[in-house]
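Need tokens for this chain, all 637 residues.
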Amino acid sequence: MYALLLTVWLAQAHPLDEAYAELRAHHYDAAIALFHKGLAGNPDAVAPRKDLAYTLLKVGDPDSAREQFGLALQHAPQDHHLALEYAFLCFEAKERRLARLIFDRVRREGDPASRATAQTAFTNIDGELAAGLARWLAAAQASPGKFSIHQEIAHLAEERDSLDLAAEHYALAWKLRPDMREFLLDLGRVHTLAKRPEPAFAALLAASHATEPRIAERARGLLGGRYPYVYEFGAALALDPENVSLRRELGFLLLAMRQPAEAEAVFTQVLARAKDDWPSLAQLGMLRLKRARNEEESAAAKELLTRVLAGSPDLELKAKVNEAMGSARQLNRFAADQSYAKGFLHDALRLYRLAQEREPDDATLQLRLGWTLNMLKQDAEAITWFDRARHAADPKIAAEAERAYRNLRPQFAPVRLSVWSLPMYSTRWRAGFSYGQLKSEFRVGHWAARPYLSLRFVGDTGTLLRQAAVVNGALSERAVIPAVGLSGRLGPVTLWGEAGLTVPFTRGPHRADYRGGASFGKAWGHPLPGKGWFATTNDDAVFVSRFDRDTIVYSLNRLGYSWGRVQAGWNSNFTFDLRRFWWGNFVETGPGVKLQVAPRLALSADALRGRHLVLTGIPVRPTYYDLRVSLWYAATY
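Here are the structure tokens for all 637 residues:
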């Protein structure tokens, strides 16, 4: 019965208490490593993150300390002393805009001491920025044609959060030096801070096609994963009309949208600015070859393609041109490759799927589909494409696909093994119990549910056999129960059902055993391992055939505080059953403690007072006291 009425909380070993022990011993490097490990499993913990930041300061790593203070401030925005620590480190790192904003907030919202400190710091920073702006604005009036002056004004204005002034002068600097696309990155960043998404997107889109990899990569990071619309390409080109790469990509987009006439016009514009842009020249030639109405137009188109064959160093492009000249077939995979290279993965996936439908045996497309799906974290489908590509005739493609396939394979292992054990003692029944289960789950294709084999163990110290007339055998069978079952998840709820056979340890009949149910569990705050307040709930509805085909519903709840490996809390438990047995309807409450003994091992002690809710046929007193001591072990392989 207690196997159905009790719940346990599986906890992993937490290294935060070990981090504090190393800190007290002044072993700072070891403490830092343990803090990082502990916070990986409990990222919302503020106090350990602050202690990690102070430890990093002790070892002379202010940059990492600043990062940790910033993460802690996200979870404790009203901790004004934490905000001041972070702001001063930002100022030392020359992040004056962020420091100024934090000091400004604290001087308005903090406690008196924090407000005074923040006011002084804010006044110093703001005064320095205001004086610098005044000097450079005067210099701009005297020498309006110097881009460096406008750059300095924009930088100071951004630090002072004067975003309109910053955008104005970054734009002036860009007009004076259109070869420095870093100004587009600056302009996009300032428009983003000012919450002007359209001009921000245009500037960042143009910057993402800069020839300098550093600028292009940073711009793509700020853009996000959405692929631009045609009108957004137009806005970016209005800002940067000489951007060949940007204009070429617009051409491929129009091509993918089945607007060949508009695409042809754009590729023509590209070649007017860069006559040897081989991808544009090849695509223009293929477009004209496809729409050629007579031999003269066909010959003119083939002349463009011949230039590509003679001048381009790209062997893959030459192969595509040869194919086009032989069949006049348009290849939309150009656009897919461009989208993939620029990081627009959803669009690349769509285009690769279209290309693969036309060329189902193309191993290169299979490999590209695998990588695109992998980068989109759709590994269940990605592994199927890697599996197909690893059989390619090209040894290079086959080797790359084989490596990718082997890297993904472990997470789709066909068998998962789990084990748990719960020995316990109850003063109410003056007996010890032991429950446990060994389970092997099997992954079957793409099924959401998993079949499993189970071996349950149920036993007691023997005292309960003498109380059989009282408890009617409900507490323990003293048997092993092999079973087969099926489990799966429906949102946050786990559903399961199994059929087995009860095999007693001693002489007795073998009985069929059918059981199943639904379970839900959730934790808030800082349960083990952790430090702080916590609340947990475990709610189950379980059908068991041996209980006269009864269904039991129970809810086990605990509220308390955790100190590293130790937890104290208050239990509130509710149990009901559909057949209204006396032993299946009661409430109980009381204090409890839990100790994390080892990584997968927890010791619990609970002192409970309970009351039965159904008194018909009850052979014991309606109210009771119970001290329960249990040891929980669980592992999954």
